[in-house]
Write a structure and sequence with these properties.
Number of strands: 22
Strand content: 15-25%
Radius of gyration: 32 Å
Low-confidence stretches: 625-636
Number of helices: 24
Structural class: alpha/beta
Distance between the termini: 13 Å
Strand order of the largest sheet: 12-13-11-14-15-10-16
Shape: globular
Length: 696
């Protein structure tokens, strides 16, 4: 199947082929992201107006829309410039006025001839005790009354496009829409009571009541599902291709891992053990691993990753662990060092800082296989870095690492297994949207020895008290983070806020006690300030959100978040996760400025109630919507036109299992349903996926 099937041609033709759409309108629609008839079909109405015929405007309570038959009375042109033009009309029970601004009299005489009957529809308002409709939406002769729908769909509009135009253009497009073969599972359609694709479109574009606009309506559910199914088919195809990629089977002896487990003061959690066995099964299999390890802050991802790395070393291979920044790479190094020593393997780090002879020596040792595990930043990708036998790449903090980079990494080794770790709990529907091509292991328990963090809300009016308490805590040898407020406008203002707070705390707590990091600092300065805090030389670290991800200072047991109401839930959760890493009882103070808005109050209350990152992420999604939770621009989450990930999250899981089952039963999409699924992929513009079928 080399190109788009012919049955879809009309939906991908020019908009100007539609009745009433000229080149100018087509351009306006194109600017709004609607460039072909298919896009019009995928733009569903978001509300509606009841235009059922009434006997009189007295049957509605102003301000409200009414549609009535009137007898046209006298015209009153404006007495002076800028005044409105008025036309008196009478319905079955009362008289009222139609009001027009900047209208031409001769046009209105033709539209509303005195003595004749017309249907008018528009918003009735009372002005100075007189009922009036300003600029009626519809004025029609009785013979054309049927042109006004009893319930008029309202479309999301862009400048220069009227509802009337959207109505006409969508009707014309529905005329063009072909009946397409069924790509959904027949049993599913029957169980959910869904209409077929075309009837679903017709119903969604012609609602007859408000209930028809709900995401729960069968027609809307069906169309949302089609969109999600196409997306999940694409991911499932990508997964099938990576699974067909021959992997190297790595079966370890267990020797190195036993050494490490023996050196630990506690036993791994059941969740860790489960994740480890899932990963080992993937490593031993003959295909490539592509797995996501999702664990909340402090759920023990590092140990799981190390077990996986040791497994490939036991089998004679090498492993690499990659982090987004040098600070985080060095932290991984520190965390892994004692464990690697217990196992008896050689662990090294490679970052942009390595230069000259030192770098050359490391590269030689990597190429000869003397280095077993390498920790690094994306410097690991440089051309001159060659491994002796790279088998596993562990990647930390996925958000900064898309599908394209996953592919690039695969090119480094013959068939590198990939394990991605993320500390950001993502609601299931979003995880499926973003990582549907991967298998997922979840760490949903905390290892022993982690103390719960006490979270309290304090108003900024008690700032002096807070600083006094901090003074006492520092005197007892404790360390604290002080996170400065987010200022939307710019990082420069963030920086100023942080510098001010730094000066005030330094004055209150003493020279040399307080450190500062913010986004505008040169990286070397930032690293140095972090290092002083890690070493315990400074006791309080004033920071903008640069410390959000992955910083590990076990002695730090206090987290202050200033103007906490400005932060999102996920961010607050990540920040709080920086404390509670040692044995000391930890506290997180959320400093807020009263009065709190409703959303702000709810966010802070949830933080106080729970430390469960998955529950927090579901709440975050419900409150903010999918686009915001991950910041769509850098998240890899597709923008869906119809599907609503918050309200239809169950559909995503359904689409994933359906897509995987379809490909399992029919890998080349050759059956009747498989061919229909190809049509769906073309319809949803998933051409990339179609190329993947041909790869297979």
């Amino acid at each position: 199947m080399s190109g788009r099937p012919e049955i879809l041609f009309p939906l991908f033709a020019s908009l100007t082929k539609l009745d009433g759409v000229g080149p100018k309108t087509a351009q306006i629609l194109d600017d709004a992201g609607v460039s072909k008839p298919r896009d019009l079909l995928m733009t569903l109405p978001h509300s509606g107006i009841d235009r059922q015929r009434k006997d009189s405007i007295r049957e509605v309570v102003a301000p409200a829309v009414a549609t009535v038959e009137v007898s046209v009375g006298a015209h009153y042109p404006p007495r002076s410039r800028g005044r409105p033009y008025r036309v008196h009309v009478t319905d079955a029970q009362t008289e009222f006025q139609l009001v027009f601004f900047h209208a031409r009299g001769d046009y209105l005489q033709r539209l509303l001839p005195t003595g004749q009957r017309r249907i008018v529809s528009g918003k009735v308002e009372i002005f100075d005790g007189v009922a009036q409709i300003v600029h009626p939406d519809h004025v029609l002769p009785l013979s054309e009354a049927a042109d006004i729908p009893a319930f008029e769909p309202v479309y999301p509009l862009h400048a220069g496009i009227t509802q009337k135009l959207m109505w006409k253009a969508t009707r014309a497009t529905l005329q063009l829409a072909p009946d397409l073969p069924e790509w959904c599972d027949a049993a599913l359609v029957a169980r959910e009571g869904w209409p077929a694709w075309k009837p679903a479109l017709v119903a969604a574009h012609a609602p007859v009541a408000m209930a028809d606009l709900s995401p729960e309506h069968p027609a809307r559910q069906r169309l949302a599902y089609d969109e999600l199914l196409a997306h999940q088919l694409t991911l499932a195809l990508a997964r099938a291709v990576s699974r067909r990629a021959k992997g190297i089977s790595s079966e370890g002896t267990g020797q190195l891992r036993d050494n490490v487990l023996a050196s630990l003061p506690y036993a791994p959690t059941a969740a860790q053990t489960r994740a480890v066995s899932e990963i080992f099964a993937d490593l031993a299999s003959g295909y490539r691993m592509n797995r996501l390890l999702q664990g909340d802050v402090g759920s023990g991802k590092t140990l799981v990753a190390l077990m996986a790395l040791l497994c490939v070393v036991e089998a004679g291979g090498q492993g690499v662990m990659m982090a987004p920044t040098e600070i985080l790479a060095r932290q991984h190094l520190d965390g892994l060092k004692p464990l690697a020593a217990a196992a008896g393997v050689r662990l090294e780090i490679l970052t942009g800082r390595d230069k000259g002879a030192g770098r050359a020596q490391k590269l030689a040792d990597l190429a000869s296989g003397d280095i077993h595990i390498l920790v690094g930043t994306h410097a690991v990708f440089q051309k001159d870095v060659a491994f002796h036998d790279l088998r596993l790449a562990v990647i930390d903090e996925q958000h900064r690492f898309g599908v394209a980079q996953r592919m690039e990494l695969g090119a480094k080794g013959a068939a590198v297994d990939v394990l991605v770790m993320t500390a950001t709990p993502i609601p299931r529907s979003l995880a499926l949207a973003q990582y549907g091509d991967m298998d997922v292991s979840v760490l949903d328990e905390k290892p022993p020895g982690r103390t719960p963090v006490q979270t309290a809300l304090v108003s900024t009016t008690r700032m002096d008290e807070v600083v006094e308490k901090l003074h006492n805590a520092v005197a007892e040898g404790r360390q604290a983070y002080w996170v400065c407020p987010l200022v939307e406008e710019s990082e420069v203002i963030d920086m100023t806020a942080a510098e001010e707070r730094f000066k005030q705390l330094r004055a209150a707590l003493g020279e040399g006690v307080v450190g500062l990091v913010h986004g505008q600092m040169p990286p070397a300065e930032k690293d140095a300030a972090m290092a002083r805090f890690v070493a315990g030389d400074t006791k309080v670290l004033v920071a903008t959100t640069v410390i959000e991800v992955g910083v590990n200072v076990p002695n730090a047991s206090i987290m202050m978040i200033e103007r906490a109401e400005r932060f999102g839930l996920a961010q607050l959760h990540q920040l709080r996760g920086r404390v509670g890493r040692g044995s000391a009882a930890s506290t997180c103070l959320l400093l807020y400025q009263a009065p709190l808005g409703e959303a702000g109050r709810r966010r802070l209350d949830i933080m106080r109630e729970t430390e469960d990152g998955f529950r927090i992420s579901e709440e975050d999604l419900a409150m903010r919507g999918a686009g915001d939770v991950i910041g769509v621009a850098q998240s890899g989450i597709p923008r869906f036109r119809i599907a609503d990930l918050e309200r239809q999250s169950g559909l995503m899981a359904l689409a994933q299992s359906d897509a995987r089952k379809l490909l399992h039963d029919d890998p080349g999409l050759q059956t009747e349903r498989g061919q229909a699924a190809r049509t769906l992929l073309w319809l949803m513009e998933q051409d990339k996926a179609i190329r993947l079928i041909s790869v297979g």
